[in-house]
Write a structure and sequence with these properties.
It is a single chain. This protein is mainly beta. The chain has two domains: 4-76 and 118-158, Sandwich (Immunoglobulin-like), CATH 2.60.40; 82-115, no CATH class. 5% of the residues lie in helices and 47% in strands. It has one helix spanning 156-164, and strands spanning 4-5, 9-10, 17-18, 21-23, 28-35, 44-53, 60-65, 68-73, 82-86, 98-100, 110-115, 121-134, 140-152. It has a four-stranded antiparallel β-sheet, with no helix packed on it. A four-stranded mixed β-sheet has the order 4-13-12-6, with no helix packed on it. A three-stranded antiparallel β-sheet has the order 10-9-11, with no helix packed on it.
Length: 170
């Protein structure tokens, strides 16, 4: 059998099969219905769905109520933006600058360089394990599939981060 997702579409950017397109640093909610196509001989009932985000953790809540997966959250990571900073009152002439990602950057520093990742899209994949039972045969089957969200980087996330950053007093 092949597991199907109700939101499957083809990405206009990558050409890959995806289950949704989202924007970096924007909250989203999505419900995806999982199904097992019936055959001439059998229909199926989903008994369990397990799902795990692969890669970097994100502030995303995932709940499952067979046959639906519900997502609620924000995609933040996956880009390699690098900030260069020095302590307040210093410069790159008086101290060695430090490089940091957005997650590592401490508050209150004097920022003077940003190497912003220009990737337009990144995929965020979920490992989905679906267990289902044949309604006639009562045969239990477990399948693993990948659910992919494509996340668009409109570059607004960094502008917003910079506008809200607590700069040093230097």
């Amino acid at each position: 059998m092949t597991i199907e997702f109700s939101t499957t579409t083809t990405s206009s950017y990558s050409g890959n099969e995806i289950q949704g397109t989202f924007v970096r640093n924007e909250s989203f909610t999505q419900s995806v219905t999982v199904s097992v196509p019936e055959t001439e001989e059998e229909t199926f009932t989903i008994t369990d769905i397990q799902i795990e985000l692969l890669g970097d953790e994100e502030p995303i809540s995932i709940t499952v109520s067979e046959p639906t997966i519900n997502f609620n959250g924000t995609y933040l990571s996956g880009w390699d933006d690098v900030f260069t900073y020095v302590p307040p009152g210093e410069s790159n002439k008086t101290t060695t600058p430090t490089d940091a990602t957005i997650d590592e950057l401490p508050e209150g520093q004097d920022l003077f360089n940003l190497d912003q990742d220009q990737k337009h899209f990144i995929p965020r994949d979920y490992d989905v394990t679906v267990t289902y039972v044949g309604d006639t045969t009562q045969t239990e089957t477990t399948e693993n599939v990948t659910l992919t969200h494509e996340v668009f980087n409109d570059l607004e996330a960094i502008r917003s981060f910079m506008a809200n950053y607590d700069y040093g007093e230097g």
